[in-house]
Amino acid sequence: MDEFETKKYDVVVVGAGGAGLRAAIAAADYGSKVALVTKSLLGKAHTVMAEGGIAAALGNEDKRDNWKVHFRDTIRGSKNLANWEMAKIHA
Question: Least crowded by CB within 10 Å, which of 3, 13, 17, 71?
Fold first, then answer.
């Protein structure tokens, strides 16, 4: 039978983007024993890909803006790493 190492934590933070890291820091500041779980390397989460705001198609403000422009911006902003089908649905 396989043996697994177990550890005890007060707080487990899943996700090491900006919000996850901030949550882990805050919990540690309050004296909690914190585990941080990430699917990638620290510093490689989605926060570093953000382009400085909330993206949306604003065709009511600019007739040149539409879901296709939003989709293109999403794919470009993700450095072509976004799931195309999901990006299209969200655009």
Answer: 3
